[in-house]
Backbone:
């Protein structure tokens, strides 16, 4: 059993990660900006006001945590980089910091040309800022010195949506996992399975991984 703090537990990804972790018997703290708006989270979840971009909040929540899951969302590019900077800078000062699992963007995965999907000419303009913000966060983690253990998780770049929990998936690193038809598909529910599996049996310390069917 792990003590898990989920930043952004009220969101599409965070709520499913929270439910998956609680369902497997972990202790989960939902760190959200508006606790009163998360009554739909499962029984047994401890809900607190928390902010991954606040050093004070990070420091306080780290006291009893084994793992931080960062599943925050928003349209501002600086959000994810600021969170990564705050987590790395704050946690490296602690004697026993929790591991960080950052739910990142699929647009940072690499095309067959070896370039990120977010750099493709036809990448949707409305998602470009958030994709660049997630790329900034990945760069922060990769540049982090000793003292912080992190894992960055990328869903598929296109076909990622709520749906069925199958409990099955395959993993890769910097390129999308594709099926025989060349599609990379995953539900939020099975991304949550992959993340809690990684919490229970770490395989991608200080690395990025992706998952799909």
Residues:
């Amino acid at each position: 059993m792990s003590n898990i703090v989920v930043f952004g537990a009220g969101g599409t990804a965070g709520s499913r990660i929270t439910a998956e972790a609680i369902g497997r018997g972990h202790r989960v703290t939902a760190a959200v900006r508006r606790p009163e708006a998360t009554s739909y989270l499962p029984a047994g979840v401890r809900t607190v006001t928390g902010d991954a971009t606040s050093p004070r909040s990070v420091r306080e929540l780290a006291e009893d945590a084994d793992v931080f899951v960062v599943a925050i969302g928003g349209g501002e590019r600086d959000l994810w980089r600021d969170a990564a900077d705050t987590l790395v800078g704050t946690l490296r000062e602690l004697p026993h910091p929790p591991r960080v699992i950052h739910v990142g963007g699929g647009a940072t995965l690499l095309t067959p040309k070896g370039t990120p999907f977010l750099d493709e000419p036809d990448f949707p303009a409305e998602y470009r800022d958030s994709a660049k913000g997630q790329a900034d966060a990945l760069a922060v983690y990769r540049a982090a010195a000793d003292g912080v253990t992190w894992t960055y998780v990328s869903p598929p770049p296109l076909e990622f949506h709520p749906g069925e929990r199958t409990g099955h998936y395959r993993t890769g690193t910097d390129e999308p996992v594709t099926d025989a038809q060349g599609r990379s598909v995953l539900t939020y529910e099975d991304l949550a399975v992959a993340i809690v599996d990684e919490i229970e049996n770490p395989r991608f310390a200080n690395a990025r991984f992706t998952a799909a069917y």
Strands lie at 3-7, 27-32, 46-49, 67-70, 99-103, 150-154, 159-161, 170-172, 185-187, 207-212.
